[in-house]
Request: fold
Amino acid sequence: MPAATPLPRGPSVLTLYSAMDLLTSPGCPVCRYAAEASDRYLRWFALEGHAQPDTITRLCGSLGTCASHTRRLMSQPGASVRLTAVYRYVVMAARDRLTGRAERLPACPACDHDTAATGRALDTLIEGLSDQATRYRCRQLGGVCLPHLATAATTARREPVAWLTETMRDAIGKVGTPRYGWVVGTDPDAEARAALRSALRSTGGWTPVACAPCLAGAHAERNALERLAGPAIDAPDPSLVLCAGHLADAATAAGHDSGPVLVAWQADCLTARIAARPTRWLPAGRQRRTVGDCAVCQARDAAARRTLADGTAAAQAGTGPALCVRHHLSLRAANPRAGDALARAVVNAADGLISDLADAFDRAAAARSRGAAARDSGAWRRAAAFLDGAVFGGLQAGAQ
Ligand SMILES: [Zn+2]
Ligand SMILES: [Zn+2]
Ligand SMILES: [Zn+2]
Ligand SMILES: [Zn+2]
Reply:
């Protein structure tokens, strides 16, 4: 009998030998490499990864992926069957976590993969910029996008960052409506988030809430983005640099009319932040963290925190707000008594979902054995919202 071909243990890493491999066409070379690496990872997950024990173990540890990667996994063909199987394990792990010791959740494995790919591309590009021919080619193609310049500014030496800043300003001067798009970076989830924000506006009155803090955060995030899309924009300020996701969201909300103004303003803010960097280069571990400074992130997180705090008193009386697993774990860490008071309801919800996922899995297996397709129960989508309410902007699956 021939030996079975061993399955790869992880997604393949995209080949990258030099900066010239990245500089193949106009637009941010780091975005292009990172987007391809990210697509490959998600394709690997759909084909093989979802069935590998170490992937499942990792997902059970992080209680699934972040909201952005969850939406991308949910949009893949065959997601209902695949994620029904995966969430059976992840919701069981969440149930254990809800009654066990409060511990910090590890990062989303897909985000870790994307961050590593971005780091590889950015390091290779920066290293290549010591060569004049590479600089010439990089300038010809427009340099890097604002989010990747911001990342480079936290890790790379002053001189190549100053050169990339100058190249970016030059590109923004040339890039006019409607082709400024690549300067804000590549975010394959931005359209899905825009659809969620517009659903948030249209669901007036009673809406089925998955998580009250996630919903409050989504409203605050939408309001902050709308302010940025308006005509009055603040003077450039290093503290007003948006994170990559919110820059993409703000550009989508601003559209073709206000988009270029927004991009030019963010370029000024980022230039001011880079100029204000300490003159002495520090190793990555000792640099001041700038992640989380984004004003939209702060507005969202503050609104979610307020709602969680308001719900704490009610939770102690056993009638707290709807909470996703992530916010329930935050509540437990901040106030164990309130967390305990709500634990029974959330554990019951987990038990209900585990049973629904098992039924859906069995029905799909039985249908497959008859060569038919089972009706989608939607349990996998409810599981995604249960684990992280942000997946559907704080609303329940199907409420959009
Ligand atoms: Zn980029
Ligand atoms: Zn992620
Ligand atoms: Zn939540
Ligand atoms: Zn942000």
